[in-house]
Structure formats: C-alpha cells, structure tokens
Amino acid sequence: MKLRVKLMSLFAKYGKEDREGFTHLEHGTTIRALAEYLGLPMERVKIVTVNGKQGDLETPLSENDLVYIFPPAIGGG
Amino acid sequence: MDRYQRNLGTLGAEGQRKLFSSRIVIVGLGGLGGHVLEQMARVGVGYITGIDPDVFEPSNLNRQLLSDVDSMGVSKVQRAKERIQQVRPETVFVGIDKRHTDAHEEIWSQADLVFDCLDSIPDRLSLAQICSDADCILIHGAIGGWYGQVAVVSPGSGLLTRLCPETGPGLEKELGTPPFTAALCASLMVAEGVKLLCGISKEDRDRVRYFDLQDGSLRSIDM
To answer: HEC string of A20-70?
Structure first.
C-alpha cells in the first residue's frame, strides 16, 4: 500500500520514504502496522491523523492516504 | 486607559473589561509560565495566582523570562511578584511557593482559567485531574526542541491522558527547550486563554494545536 506519511519532529528519523515521498506498507492495513513497520516507539504514538481526521492505532488505511504521526511534547519548565 | 489602547482594537472594550476582572492560575513559572505571566499581566488580567516551589538555576537562563544572572537561587514566585509590580501593579498577584498538589482547593474553584506550564507527565496529569474536579478549564502547553503543542482541556474530557505517553520522558530530554519554542508556545496558550476570557471564542476546546518551527507548520487536530 502506497501512503504519504509525515512523521513530525523526533519521529522524522524513522521515515522510510521513497524518492517520490511515498511510504510503502507491505504487511497490514492499520496505523499499528505502519508504526511497527517504521519502528516507532509504540508507547509514544499518541496523536495520529489520517486525511486530516484523528485516528488511532487501529485506524484502517487505504491507498494514497495522508498520515501524520506526532510525538507528544512534555517540556515547559 | 492609554496603556490598553493597543489592546482595544483586538479585544474590544467589553473584552478588556472582562480581563480586568478575570482570575487565572499559572502552574509553573519557568519557560512557559514566565511568558504567560508577562503577557497576561500586560493584557490586563486582574488576578493572577502563580504556583512554583522552585528557585532559579543557571540552566534556566536560556529561556525563562523571569530569570537573570542576579536571580540564581531566588524563588520563582518571588521574582514573579516583583515582575508584576514592575509591569502592572494593579494586578493582584498571589504567589504560592509549593507544589500545586499542596495548594488550597478554593484556588481552583475560583479560577476562570488554569495554565499548565509544568514539565513532567505525572504533574501535568495530576493538575488536569484537579482542574477537572474543580470544573475549571485548563490551558495546556508543552515543548520539545523546535516543536510544541497547545490544548484547551475541558473538565472531564480526559484529553491530557490521551495526549501524554504512559512512560518515559518527553521530547525535551532529547531535544532541549530553546527560548523561541517556549515563547511561541506560551503566546499560543495566552491567545487561547484571552479568547476564552473575553468571550471571543468558545469553539477550541478539545482541539490540539501542534507547531513545528523547523518546517514552520501549525496544525489543529480535533480530539
């Protein structure tokens, strides 16, 4: 499945985009499968959007979906 | 009223009057809290309670507006009180140099808004629970590196629990907390708070705003 995946901030280093900016998910059809494929720390995958709408680990994905995954920020002091 | 002249075009006279009688609590007077305090006083908020048990240390100097080279070892609450006197002495400031969990219950029930300017997950979650119990709206802000998040948390929404990871440190342990990210995050928090206090917006609850200063993006997500 060909996806457009935007990994924000600290997650950017986990990206596996091809030259055209697409991520190819070979196994599975959910955000969880995508996160596992990318090797993201699962406990920190809290905020996800798919085509602009909030999703979660079980949200199903379709060809050409636009996925954003945000790590949580905690600092402030 | 000259000092509010540059507020009025944005907030209106009625909005400005509402701020004069507004009561806010700022929990944490560090990187976020110092900027929130400064802006809330300058915009004209009448009553501010600041809560922080800490004193300033050298690692604060890169971003914490209330700190300077003369304030090392000085209570953050004390500096906040002095700053309010310099900037807007009409604001009634109450400083509490304890943890928020040790503050009196009426502080929360009397507040129009509470600002979460803390820096650890357990503290943030306990403050969210206190605000929820007191039926008080919480403005949450957090940063790490170039990146930050701001949310308006309604009582009982559980939004912060959904945002925070169960374990481990946040981004800031790896990415640091630079001054520009702290100042922008605080400004977004203040803007959300002022909109609510003035009655300009009631629509932004349970919406998270993420910004990334590396790519210049700002995104809003309805939760």
So the answer is: CCCEECCCCCEHHHHHHHHCCCHHHCCEEEECCEEECCCCECCCCCEEEEE
